Amino acid sequence: MKLERMDKILAARTEYSRKDAKKLVWQGRVRHNGKIATSPDAKVDLQADTLELDGKSLQIQEHLYLMLNKPAGVLSAARDPKQPTVLDLVPEKYRRSGLFPAGRLDKDTEGFVLITDDGDFAHRILSPKQHVEKTYHARIDGPVTDQMRAGFAEGVELEDGTRCRPAQLQLLEEGEQPLCRVVLTQGMYHQVKRMFLSYGRRVTWLKRVAMGGLALDETLAPGEAREISEIELKLLLAKI
Ligand code: URA
Questions:
Q1: If both were cysteines, with which of 40, 63, 101, 142 could 118 make a disulfide (CB 3.0 to 4.6 Å apart)?
Q2: Which of these three, 57, 85, 101, is where a domain ends?
Q3: What's the N-to-C CA distance of the chain in angstroms?
Q4: What is the pLDDT of residue 110?
Q5: Measured distance CA(220)–CA(67) in Å, rounded
Q6: Geometric angle at alpha carbon 118, from 113 and 124, rounded to 5°
């Protein structure tokens, strides 16, 4: 249980000041667990209670964790003066200060981006020491060879001499542009593209389909986001 004063939560989760938040309660515009609230200093359980303002539910939990299906063409940065970012795609009801994307996908990469305001959690997901797996689907411009499979399993040496951690490479679909599944436990800049480039292959399409044991919800259309449940959060950190 984590208790906070109602006016404090209202001020933190809406545009209203603390003073105006008190007025909202006195005006009968706030519902606490479904009932009209009467006192702004009432204690609200951030983990279990619900608050509504003018009939719209507020996201009151301490931290928010969102799964976004990033479309190509959007930056994985917090804000950019010229280009759309993943934070611009966060639906109004989830907007709050402190949100950021935990880890980056290239502008042309699609798929799973975790957006949160929980720095500690993001650190656990991203820290190379935690070995949280990131799974990608990639189309490349030539065949997958035995040499590539062995190289990925051993640890690819990139063009600048950096040695990558062992990674999984699996052919999912043959063809002119074969579809591969790649699983990494680290996240270096352009890593998947550079790993394939070490074997003379260009990545023509790339999508992150899972983080840890949590797969991207395929019902999310590109650009859509939804909250990650508590059970799913545990899956995110799970080793697979
Ligand atoms: N590897 C890449 O090359 N690009 C990404 O966006 C993610 C992993």
A1: 63
A2: 57
A3: 31
A4: 98
A5: 9
A6: 75
Q: CB of 140 closer than 6 A to ligand 1?
A: no
166 in the same domain as 116:
no
Domain count along the chain = 3
> In angstroms, rounded to a whole number, what is the distance separating the alpha carbons of residues 56 and 134?
35
Q: Which of 107, 136, 185 to mutate to test the pocket of ligand 1 (most atoms within 8 A of CB)?
A: 136
73/113 same-domain check: yes
SS3 63: coil
Residue 191 Cβ inside 6 Å of ligand 1? The answer reads yes
Measured in angstroms, how far is the CA atom of residue 34 from the centroid of ligand 1? Answer: 45
Q: Is 54 a catalytic residue?
A: no
Q: Classify strands 56-57 and 51-53 as parallel, antiparallel or unpaired.
A: antiparallel
DSSP secondary structure code for residue 157 in this structure: B
Decide: 117 in ligand 1 pocket, CB within 6 A.
no
Residue 193 Cβ contacting ligand 1 at under 6 Å: yes
Pair (143, 192) in one structural domain: yes
CATH assignment at residue 10: 3.10.290.10
In this prediction, residue 239 carries a pLDDT of 65
Mean pLDDT per 10-residue interval, the chain, length 240 residues: 92 90 96 96 92 91 94 91 93 88 96 96 87 95 97 96 96 97 94 98 98 96 95 84
pLDDT of residue 226: 96
Q: Do 140 and 199 fall into the same domain? A: yes
Here the tokens at position 56 are 């719209």
Instruction: Give the range of the structural domain holding residue 102, as residue numbers without chain letter.
Output: 65-128+217-236
Catalytic residue among 45, 106, 117, 217: 106
